[in-house]
């Protein structure tokens, strides 16, 4: 299962990570979020040790979502060296997320 990011661990786990980080902003009630959730879990397993993959529940952690202007979910943000480097709003094919992640690992 993917990492669980929160308002309290976001700085330490995401912004200070030495690896690229993909964060899935989601909510329990969001249908499209439930569609992309299993893909995020697969990426977590496939990129273990190479990238950090996790989820942030926007209902339980509104501060980070507000800070990055997340208005629609699912929104997937990719961070590298503490900086936001890529963004995907809405459901997308796994291959697209792989492409975005790989671009940050080059």
Report on this model:
The protein is an alpha/beta fold. It has a single domain, classed as Glutaredoxin (3-Layer(aba) Sandwich). Helix content is 38%, strand content 26%. The chain contains 4 helices and 5 strands, in the order βαβαβαββα. It has a 5-stranded mixed sheet with strand order 1-3-2-4-5. The longest helix is centred in the middle third of the chain and has 16 residues. 33% of the residues are buried.
User: How many domain modules?
Assistant: 1
CATH superfamily: Glutaredoxin
The number of helices is: 4
If you compute it from the alpha carbons, what radius of gyration comes out, rounded to the nearest whole angstrom?
12 Å
Globular, elongated, flat, extended or rod-shaped: what is the shape?
Answer: globular
CATH topology: Glutaredoxin
Strand order of the largest sheet: 1-3-2-4-5
What structural class do you assign from the helix and strand content?
alpha/beta
Helicity level: 25-40%
Identify the notable features of this structure and list them briefly.
single chain, 106 residues, alpha/beta, Glutaredoxin, 5 strands, 38% helix
């Amino acid at each position: 299962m993917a990492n669980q990011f929160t308002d309290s661990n976001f700085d330490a786990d995401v912004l200070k990570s030495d690896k690229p980080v993909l964060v899935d902003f989601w909510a329990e009630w969001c249908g499209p979020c439930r569609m992309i959730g299993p893909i995020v879990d697969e990426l977590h397993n496939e990129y273990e040790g190479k990238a950090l993959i996790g989820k942030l529940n926007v209902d339980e952690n509104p501060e980070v979502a507000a800070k990055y202007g997340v208005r629609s979910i699912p929104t997937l943000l990719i961070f590298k060296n503490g900086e936001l480097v890529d963004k995907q709003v809405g459901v997308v094919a796994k291959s697209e997320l792989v492409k975005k992640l790989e671009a940050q690992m080059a």
